[in-house]
Amino acid sequence: MKTLKHFVALLLLASPVMTWAQEDFRLINEDLPNPENEPAPVHPVPHPRQLKWQETEFYAFFHYGMNTYTGKEWGYGDENLNTFAPTALPNPHQWLEVAKKAGMKGGIAVVKHHDGFCLWPTETTDHHCQNSNNTYAKTLNIPEAFAKAAKELEMKYGFYISPWDRNSALYGTDRYVKEVFLRQSAELAKYGSDQFEMWFDGANGGGGYYGGAKENRSIDRETYYDVPNLRDTVHKVCPDCVLWGVGGEARWIGNEEGWAGQTNWSPENRGYAPENNGMYGNENGWFWLPGESDAKGTSGGWFYHDGERPLSPETLFQMYLETVGRNSTLILNLPPNKAGVLPPATVTAVTRMGELITQRLSKDLAPNAKVKASVTRTAGLNKKYVAENLTDNDKNTYWAAPDGTTSATITFTWDTPQKVRYVDLMEYIAKGQRVKKFKIETSADGNEWTQRAERQETTTIGYKRIIPLNGSTEHSYSNAYDVKALRITIMDAKACPLLHRISIY
Q1: What's the pLDDT at 255?
Q2: pTM metric for this prediction
Q3: Which CATH class is domain 366-504?
Q4: Which of 50, 89, 264, 474 could bridge to 327 as Cys pair (CB 3.0-4.6 Å)?
Q5: What's the pLDDT score for residue 5?
Q6: How far is residue 300 from each of residues 79, 181, 203, 313, 334, measured CA to CA in Å?
Q7: Beta-carbon neighbour count of residue 121 at 10 Å?
């Protein structure tokens, strides 16, 4: 009996210690450094504003200004203000309505080109639209009207402002950036705190009017424009605004023809040569500098020219596949005419382009398939990394492989064969770009497999990669395959692959 009493007493004494130990163990578990078992990022990774910018995918460029009336592409800066003479009140609402019909999510209006002529009543120069004697120009404010129209149409918007100013007497001096360029950028930022992009052209220095000096002036664009101060000036008002070009937050894709490299990395290095490498990026780049493809939607220049015609809807669709479908964004130029509206032929062509995108890339077959992955990352406390995440239409979920695994297979199967032409793949790029090589195979019976898209470089994916299964972006819709099963094999990656979405059309 004495022994039993001693045993009970020891238990009573020990029980608070045992309870404390259990509670302490539980606290340690709740404080684990990675309770969700999330994959480590592969650097560099995008800033949140760059992610939002990439999601815009396809948007319009509207080159309109003094050059519309002189027939030039680059004005010298000495143009008479009265030459700017709209034949009707320019209508930015119409511009954006047409862009929306084409499937675009936003637009960027050129409000100051190299000639220094401004399409708003700026305090920095007299060289602006309201000083023209034209009736429609006297009250014109394109940034104000453009921002208002974008909000009404629920579209994203931004502005192009040329850093180079061939009119300003101050250009090339130590006063221009502070007294003109930064002030103009700040003025434009105030037309809407929700702007998604501000476009700073890379053309800098050369011959110009320069207040009557009529001479050549050169600058070092890497230092002259005070980019850190420029970023602070804009981001203070517009926190989600990506500064393209001179601003160093997105890169030129390297051509003006509407195509990106089939192998296209978003990482790049400062001081890169975009004319040589912009189409491809740099697998080992130090900075996240995603590519934007600026392309003309008409046969003329960037500005409107009499007699120009729009590109065909099929050509524009091919351009879409070779930019948005290759980890780039596409900014397609649609120049307003002398009445300040998009011409009927342009409206017809881009509207038809939008119809082609909807017809060919909107009926997703993947959600109706059974999906299976060869490997799946272990779930965390509240997150799962299962293959079903690929078709749940949730931007915050993704399928993931375990650490140390750089290859995997994802298979979609249907009960009956489906007509398939395209596969649309998206990485979860918030944690970096990873995939280096993949392949796509289809099966008509679920047993025998045939590799598809063999004429395509199935290397990088990035934010988005659209693969025509027949291997041709020019004639992508000409072949449909009877598919009962479709298999995507990630063959190599920088780290465990993460796929956000797979769509099949």
Answers
A1: 94
A2: 0.92
A3: mainly beta
A4: 264
A5: 43
A6: 21, 29, 20, 16, 10
A7: 15
Whether the CA torsion 341, 344, 345, 349 is positive or negative: it is: positive
230-236: long-range contacts, CB 8 A cutoff, minimum separation 24: 230/181, 230/182, 230/185, 233/182, 233/185, 233/186, 233/189, 234/185, 234/186, 234/189, 234/198, 236/189
For residue 86, what are its two tokens? Answer: 């709209």
Mean pLDDT for the stretch of residues 49-55: 98
pLDDT, residue 14, reads: 41
Please state, in angstroms and rounded to a whole number, the distance separating the CA atoms of residues 17 and 4: 21
Q: How far apart are CA 310 and CA 334, in angstroms?
A: 9
CATH architecture of 48-360: Alpha-Beta Barrel (3.20)
DSSP conformation letters of 344-372: HHHHHHHHHHHHHHHHHSS---GGGSEEE
* Mean predicted confidence (pLDDT) in 224-237: 94
**Three-point CA angle 143, 145, 149, nearest 5°:** 115
In the predicted model, is pLDDT for residue 346 greater than 90? yes
Distance between CA 240 and CA 290 in Å, rounded?
15
DSSP code, position 312: P
Q: Which two tokens stand for residue 163?
A: 């850093």
* Pairing verdict, β 197-200 and 156-161: parallel
Q: Tokens 């003309």 appear where?
A: 296
| Cα radius of gyration rounded to whole Å, the chain | 28
Beta carbons within 10 angstroms of residue 438's beta carbon? 24
Tokens representing 219? 């600058």
Q: Please report, for the chain, the start and end positions of each structural domain, with discontinuous segments joined by +.
A: 48-360, 366-504
Q: Which two structure tokens, joined as six digits, stand for 486?
A: 């479709």
Give the span between the Cα atoms of 299 and 350, in whole angstroms. 14
pLDDT level of residue 221 (50, 70, 90 thresholds)? confident
Closest C-alpha among 413, 411, 405 to residue 373:
411
**Which two three-digit tokens encode residue 271?**
């001081």
pLDDT over threshold 80, residue 272: no
Q: What are 349's strand-pairing partners?
A: none
First to last CA, the chain: 80
Which residue in the block uniquely carries the two structure tokens 């809807």?
A: 313
Q: 390 — phi, psi (to 5°)?
A: -70, -20
Q: Rounded to whole angstroms, what are the CA distances from 332 to 6, 142, 299, 410?
A: 86, 19, 13, 34
On whether the CB atoms of residues 103 and 57 are closer than 8 A, the answer is no
**Residue 417: CB partners within 8 Å, gap ≥ 6?**
444, 482, 483, 484
Give me the amino acid identity at 168.
Answer: S
